[in-house]
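Dear support,

I submitted the protein below through the web form. The confirmation email said the job was done, but the results page showed an empty box. After a refresh the structure appeared. I'm attaching both so you can tell me whether what I see now is the final result or a partial one.
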Amino acid sequence: MPRISITHRSAVFGTVLAIGATTLFGGAAPAHATHASPGGRVTASNGGHYITVAGGNLVGTPEYTITDAAWSPDGSRAVFVTDNGDIATIRYNDGESLYPIANPDPSSQRADPEWVGDGSTVVWAARSAGEPWRIEETLSTYGFDIVTRSPDDGHHYTQPDTNDSQRVVVQRQADDGNGNPTGTPEIGFLDGSTYTPIVSDATSPTLSPDGQKVAFVRGNQIWVSDTSGNNLVQVTGNASSHGDPVWYPTGQTLAFRQGSGIAAAAADGSQQNPTNIAGITGEPDVQPNKKDRVVRLSGTDRFTTAVAISQSHWATRGNAADKRAPADSVVLTRWDSFADALGGSALAAAKQGPLLMSTLDTLHPTATAEMQRILAPGKTVYLLGSAAGAISANVEQQVKALGYNTVRLAGTDRFATSVAIANAIDPTPDTVLVATGMDFPDALSAGAAAGAQNLPGKGTSAVVVLTNNNLLPAPTKTYLDGLSGSSTVVGVGLSGATAAQPYDAIPLYGDSRWETALLTAWTFFGGQNHIGVTTGMNWPDALAGGALMASLDGPLLLTYGTDDVPGYEVEMLADETSGSVHTGLIFGSAPVVNDLEAQNLGYYLAGPNSYNLLANQTDVVRSTGGTAGPAQRGGAGAVDGPRTRAELKAAAEAARERLAD
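What the results page shows now:
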C-alpha cells in the first residue's frame, strides 16, 4: 500500500526541539531494553545522524544526531537523545517522522532512554552538574510531566533497562562528593522508587524478555545471572573488551559491543569466543518485530455493533478464566437519538460497564443477552433519558425482571439529562468538558476523554455537560454556577468553548470536528495502548465505541469513513504514538469505516512486521501495567492527581500550537 505523507511532522518536531542546547558531561555506555517478539535485528547508534544495520543505514535525519537509540515494543519507533538534549523518537522507516517526548533541559545531561513495559512510558538517566545521576520517567507522548524515579540517597543511578514488564534494572554507584561516580558498581531493580540490589561488581544491566535473567558486564566480559544474582554464567571469554549487552527478543542470545565492533553469542555461555557481525558498529540494540493489529468491532446494525464492542472487553460473569474486565454495570440508551446519550461514555467508564442500546418500548434481545452474560443479578443498569421520550417504563420493568437494579438519569431535556449524568459520576468533578448537545461529534470525543479520567485508580474525575450551540441552557448554567472553584472547565468544540467562556473555560477546538477530536486526544491522552477510530458522520457506533475507549484509557478519533485514507488527524496521532499503541480499533462495519481506512491506520501503527487486520476480537483489554512506575499511565498525565487548571491550559495551548504548525 502506498504511503500517505503526513503534513506538519517535521515542523512540529523542529518547533519543540529547537529550544536550546545542553552541555554534555560524558557517561557510561548503556544496555538496551528487550521486548519479546518472534525475532529481531541488531541495530546500532553512535552519535551520528543514523541508526544503522549490518551493511548500511536503517533510518536517520540530517537535522539531529542520534545517541543511545532504543526500540519500542513493536519496533515501530526508536527513542534517542539528540544533540540538543531532547528525548525524541523516530519512525523505523521514515526519517521525517520525528516527534519529541521531552524538551531539552539546559542544565542537565541525558542518556540511555528506554521504553518501559508496553511503551506507555520512557525512562532515561539524567544529571545536573555536580550532582549524582538520576532516573527520570515520563509518558511516551510529548507534553507530559517528567518525574524522578530513583531515590534521592546520594548515589548515582544510571543505565536503566526494561522488558515487557514495568520493572527497571539500573546501575548504582557511590558519589565522590563532586558529582562523579566512584567505588564498585552494582546493579539492581528499581520498582517505583524502591531500589533492590541484584549483584555487585557489575555494570550495564539488561533484563531478559521473560524477566527471569539479567545480563551485565564484569571485568570486560558479558555475564548472565538470575534476578537474585545467582546461577552465574560467563557468556564471553576472549581477550576483547565487551559492553552494552542487549537480549534478542527470543531470550536465547545476547548482542553486545566487542572491541570496536558488535558481536552476538548464546546466553548459555556456549559461544565464549564470538566473532563480530560484519558491517555494523556503535551501541547495539535489537529491533523487535512484534505485530500490531487493527480490530474492527461491528455487527449487522447498531444494536449488534454495541454488543460486539461490549464483548471485546467485558468478561463473562462467573468465568474465572476470562481475562476480560469484569463489569459492574450497564448503561442503556435509546437507539435512534443521541440527545440524552452524549454523557453516556463518561458514565460507562465511571461505572465500569458497556453502553448498550434499546428501542423506546422494548428491550432489544441482543442487549438482554449481553446484560445476562456480563452482569450478575443485583447489579445496576443505568437508563439514560425520561420514560416518555427516551426509554419507556416498560423497558425498565423488563430490566428489573432480569434481576437488575435500575437508575434512571433524566431531566426535562437533553441539557438537564447531561447534568443528571454528571452528578451521578461526581457532583464535584475535577474537570468539566462542555460541548454542544445539538450535534454529536464534539461531545463524543469529549466523552471518551472525560470517561478515561474516571477510571479506578486514577484519582481524578471528569464529566460532560451540554450547550445549545453557543448558548448556555438554564440547566447547564445552573450546574456551572454551582461548581466549586476547584473544577476546571474545558470548552470542547467552538460552540462549547463559546458558551462556556464566562466560566474561564479552556478553549479546545479546531477548524473541524476531526481537528477537535485530535486536539482532545493530544490534551487528555498520552502513552496510550489503543486508538479508536469511527465515522464522524453518525453517532451510534461512536457512542458505544467512545465508552470502550474511555475504559481502555485511549482517545476516540473521527474520520469520514469512506475515503482512501482516514485523514491526517488520525494519521498524525497513530504515527506519533505507534511506539505505545499496539491495537487500533475501528467501530462499525465496512460501509461505515471502509477497509482502506482501516488498512491505512494499520500502516501508521505498525513496525517492521506489519499488522493483522482482525474482526470482533474478544481480548481487547486495558494493560494492567504490572508494577507501575510513578508516571501516571495515560489520561490527564499528572503523576499525583489531576492536572491543575494551569497545567491543563498549557496542554491545550500546546496542542493548538502543534496543529497550527
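Response: this is the final, complete result; the empty box was a page-load delay. The radius of gyration is 26 Å.
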